[in-house]
Amino acid sequence: MHNVTANGATIPALGFGTFELDSEQAESMVEHALKVGYRHIDTAQAYNNEDAVGRGIKNSGVAREDIFLTTKVWTDRFTDGELQKSAQESLDRLGTDYVDLMLLHWPNPDVSLKETLNALNEIQDKGLARNIGISNFTSRQIHEAAEISGHPLATNQVEYHPYLDQKPVLDALAEHDIALTAYCPLARGEVFKDPTLERIGKKHGKNAGQVTLRWLVQQDNVIALPRSSNPDHVASNFDIFDFELTEEDMSEISKLHSEDGRMINPSFAPEWDNAA
Questions:
Q1: Could you give the CA distance from residue 207 to residue 192 in angstroms, rounded to a whole number?
Q2: Is 41 within 8 Å of 50 (Cβ atoms)?
Q3: Residue 38 appears among annotated catalytic residues
Q4: In the chain, what is the straight-line distance between the N-terminal and C-terminal CA atoms, in Å?
Q5: Domains (ranges, CATH) in the chain?
Q6: Among 38, 47, 160, 163, which one carries the catalytic annotation?
């Protein structure tokens, strides 16, 4: 297991995501993931499973200080006062005194970014979050947030997989020493049907998913958050630290992106860098 360091934060490069896991699945899979060896768990207010994630952590027997725990504030709680209140509610549900990382889940143009980031900074000042960051921000918004925030931002969590070119975002993040955390890293299972990834996998004795996750974490300052409700998949997704992709492998995978590769694009999404 290796870590990514960004603006003072040390983040395990592979985390377990809990999006779309109901309470029962979130509790059992978080416990299972921690027993497999994951030490980075990601949830959000909007996933409605923070309480279950908290129970899974407790059930695992792994010490809280050994786990890097992330949650995200939903956009309807972005005003000053409301954001701090919602952060405390998240901690209560998770059964912890602090999270290692608290993110703004999506940009919200209806509340000034300055107001929201000041409130988020206050959460860090109070020790409720060890680190703060953003999610689903475009390159323009990354520069703006980095300039406004009193505390440095640890990461921007965005969709990232071989079919989506995130170069503008990666370049913007690199300027500010901010990591990229990839959600939807297996492109909703599409990678398993990909002949290129399958071929590269055969060479290394790995499956297409393991190759994809390795491609992500082998990049500078990139963290991946695979999610699964299948215990075997949770374990195989973690089994990526005993091989290395060649430069040729990395380059071949990077060329798989297409203009319509984005899979998560809700009506409230910002105007993406690669919207063409």
A1: 8
A2: no
A3: no
A4: 36
A5: 17-186 (3.20.20.100)
A6: 47
Decide: residue 159, CB within 10 A, 0-12 exposed, 13-18 middle, 19+ buried: buried
| Predicted local confidence at residue 274, as pLDDT | 72
**CB under 8 Å to 61, separation ≥6 — which residues?**
none
Structure tokens at 176: 């500010």
Query: What pLDDT, in 10s, does the model give residues 74-111?
Result: 999 999 999 999 999 999 999 999 999 999 999 999 99
Q: Are 104 and 135 in contact (CB under 8 A)?
A: yes
Q: What's the sign of the alpha-carbon dihedral 15, 16, 20, 26?
A: negative
Q: Do the Cβ atoms of 83 and 108 come closer than 8 Å? A: no
Total count of residues recorded for the chain? 276
Sheet-wide strand order for 68-73: 16-17, 40-42, 68-73, 99-104, 129-135, 153-159, 179-183, 222-224
